[in-house]
Write a structure and sequence with these properties.
single chain, alpha/beta, Rossmann fold, six-stranded mixed β-sheet, four-stranded antiparallel β-sheet, 9 helices, 37% helix, 26% strand, globular, binds adenosine-5'-diphosphate, binds magnesium ion
Length: 240
């Protein structure tokens, strides 16, 4: 079953076409990775899916419903949640309170307390609850943000560069967490640079380049594609 269908979507910023005629499907229950060089349009595509930008052209369907004109809040209510590339935790508030804010309006009372503990433990932050979020390591802040996105109990979780600034151990742990979410039935669309991490989690991979879909398939097929190596690894056409 297709959970997300992006149909002929484009986004222009003035004279720049950041996303250009993109067709992409995300199947229910898969972990799908979106890769591509800097400036390829990955973050813009995420923002289009979650409704932070209206597309210049095209349609987006979620669970077979056309959500192209829906506000982000309505899309979240339908079951999508995003961890954006730029950190957005409340740095001046305790870790625990960040989670509480994210849980607000979804659960209350004893259930909220249980869910708060469950998320803190799941994200390896059980002993950090009283610390200010701004005092956490960069990797821990990423986990906190993932926890805040999870608090919404999404059917679809979009993660934009979740392992940026993480140590290799933290990155691996994040991959294992993502697999746990997926085993629990969650669908994930993840932007990543780290190929070892993509190998750890991805069932399908899509390559974006200059705002367009450049390739898609299994990671093995993509890594063997010389055209992908050229654009992604910048092996050719790079002049210093
Ligand atoms: P990626 O996440 O793949 O690195 P982005 O989606 O962030 O790429 O950016 C794609 C292109 O769109 C880049 O050239 C970027 O400078 C441009 N861009 C992104 N957001 C905006 C914006 N809000 N206004 C103008 N240009 C933007
Ligand atoms: Mg980006």
């Amino acid at each position: 079953m297709t959970l997300v269908e992006v149909k002929g979507v484009s986004k222009r910023f003035g004279g720049l076409t950041a996303v250009s005629g993109v067709d992409l499907t995300v199947d229910a229950g898969e972990v799908h990775c979106l890769i591509g060089p800097n400036g390829a349009g990955k973050s813009t595509l995420f923002k289009l899916i979650v409704g932070l930008y209206p597309p210049t052209q095209g349609q987006i369907l979620f669970d077979s419903v056309d959500i192209t004109q829906q506000r982000p809040f309505a899309r979240v209510q339908r079951g999508m949640s995003i961890k954006m590339q730029a950190p957005s935790v409340f740095r001046e508030l305790p870790v625990r309170q960040n989670i509480q804010i994210a849980l607000q309006g979804h659960v209350s009372g004893a259930e909220r307390d249980r869910e708060e503990e469950r998320l803190l433990t799941l994200l390896n932050l059980a002993t950090e609850g009283e610390k200010l979020a701004g005092a956490l390591s960069h990797g821990q802040q990423q986990w906190l943000e993932i926890g805040m996105a999870l608090a919404l109990r999404p059917q679809l979780l979009l993660l934009d560069e979740p392992t940026a600034g993480m140590s290799p151990e933290e990155t691996f742990r994040t991959g294992e967490l993502i697999k746990t979410f997926n085993t629990g039935g969650m669908t994930l669309l993840v932007v990543e640079h780290d190929m070892a991490f993509v190998r750890q989690i991805a069932q399908r991979v899509t390559v974006l380049h200059l705002g367009k879909i450049f390739a898609h398939g299994s990671l093995e097929a993509i890594l063997q594609d010389e055209k992908v190596a050229e654009i992604y690894l910048g092996k050719t056409h790079v002049h210093h």
